[in-house]
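Bench log, entry 3. Co-assembly request; chain sequences pasted below exactly as received.
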Amino acid sequence: MRLIKRRHVYLKVFVEDGEGVEISPSDLFFGVKNLYERLFGTTACSLSYLRVEEAKADGFIVSINRASLNELMSVLTLLNKVKGVKVSLRVSGVSGTKRGARRRNSSASTI
Amino acid sequence: MKYYDFSVNYVEESYEEFLKVLVDLGYAGVGIVFPKDSLGKIEEAGREALDHGLEFFSRYNIAAESLEEFDKEASRYRGKVDILALERLPPKMAERINLKKVSIIGVENVTGPLIRKIRGRAKPPSLEFNMKKASMLLKEKPHEFGRMLRMAFLSDLQKVPLIVSSGAEDVLDLKPPLQLLYAFQGLIRSEEISKRYISTLPRPLIPETFGGVG
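Structure output for the full assembly:
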């Protein structure tokens, strides 16, 4: 039995004048983690079990403890710079499984 | 359900791109903030928004340093735009404004007594939580960001009408409506998710726009 229920968020990343700028999952992870800690504190960030992985060329899947989903949304909405580059992070699917998040992303443009 | 973003800044060069993205993201209506020198373009901008299938509201933001300046600006632009909003006024002065003059007040300008005053009115103006402003304050003036959050929390607690908007200045600032909603509820640590923050029209606007209904 799983002790922690997770939510998987499919994220589309838009970069300003983004030719040649590559954002890796670890860049995004540290960007999100730093702002998360600043907004909600180190304890909340640790207990969120944050994870980031690449999904497609323009997308990432961010996984989080279900109880921390709203906090993650706040961070994703307020975060507008990663690696010193202006970015826009738009959520396009949320699900309990990664497959579900991918499916929601392909079927709708908003959560 | 219809979703609205009441604070998108007018940028002539990328206006059409703004409208396309708003439609893609699932918005039904938009409030476009016009600077002083672009007020002549309201009609044309409205037509373009309607062509894209978006409800259009023109908006002017009042930024003043004193009550006299606020009154002067409010009288000058009243009737010229659909929404007159208070963007900046020292909070102690904002307590003394005539609430009939504006439809939207930025939540960073209010104080506890003003929230109680708004709550007591039959047709109160809406308070607005602007994400772009929140992001800017978090970076530049964290104490002001903290105050903004406290006032938003207090407004929510007192059931004062509150709307959430993107405050977009370029296309990258636009976010899906539900992302804005969840982000706001995450910031004020609200357990109950309610779509009223992104689907309510500012009340003083309703009779003017829909011929007395509401």
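Chain B has a mean pLDDT of 89. The interface with chain A takes residues 24-26, 131, 134-135, 138, 170-180, 182-187, 190 of chain B (CB under 8 Å).
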